[in-house]
Request: fold
Amino acid sequence: MKTNLPKERYSQAGPVAPTVMVTCVDARGRPNIITLGMYMPISHDPPQVVIGVSPKRYSHDLIRDQGEFIVNSPGIGLAEKMHICGTKSGRDVDKFKEAGLTPGPARKVRPPLIQECYGHIECEVVNMVTCGDHTLFVGEVVAASIDEDCLRDGKLNLSAARPIAQKNWDYRTLSEK
Amino acid sequence: MKTNLPKERYSQAGPVAPTVMVTCVDARGRPNIITLGMYMPISHDPPQVVIGVSPKRYSHDLIRDQGEFIVNSPGIGLAEKMHICGTKSGRDVDKFKEAGLTPGPARKVRPPLIQECYGHIECEVVNMVTCGDHTLFVGEVVAASIDEDCLRDGKLNLSAARPIAQKNWDYRTLSEK
Reply:
């Protein structure tokens, strides 16, 4: 039996979401981290991704003004650190210090990557679209890197990376086959 | 140790993707189904979602021209039927028949919902954005419904719905806690 949902609660009828930790910088190069459930790849050639960020978030204007971000992909072991980055504001704290995460140099953009994450997608903003109460940033991929031991035959090794999927911020990894 | 990826293979450094089955109709009301790994919620108020569709796909012009689609969320038990809907073209076959899926009436739009899926998000197209080799459709949610037994305390029950997450089309459900 199907039951109707109020349309503002539509996401309960949807699939799970990935979770990523996006890094960005302010004008002085000071880095911030935002935990996001709104990420998807969108184009193969040229390589592009999209993320959704609320204008209320501190990172929103950093990404808009500096035009760069990195999508860092966490394994399930980082769930607690992700929660810290998703609930504190970079206006008040240094999230790398607060969460005990390690910044590392990116290849093509100014924001640092998060060493503890298994994968890193470096992006330059090529378009911004207002969609209701969020901004959709379209990022062109300018570099990508991954933990060597999470790659098998050129593909992400799910058993090694243990990527996160969540619904209502209940973090899980994937079932074994 | 981090290793660089060619930027066109960036998605290996990214998180997992959900998988949904989107339904749409042609001008005569004939329905089609497309399996997509590009879906995300984008706005709470007004409720909006985005999907990414290649202009090469038969469903692309149906969604553009008719301005309506439904995001249907499958459980892992539908993996084989999803594969059929992702690899055959609606130009050649009736995918409901081909995959053995059951169309059901939607509340606010013309495309049918897929009865075997646990959730259904009915959308009207409010924006289209070309992002590289794909089109991003922004859909405003006009109705949503869910299998009664997949809802617990107003939220999606992961153990009952068994939603799909995938990387490189390797379908998995989520781990138990």
Notes: Chain A has a mean pLDDT of 95. The longest helix of chain A spans residues 58-66.
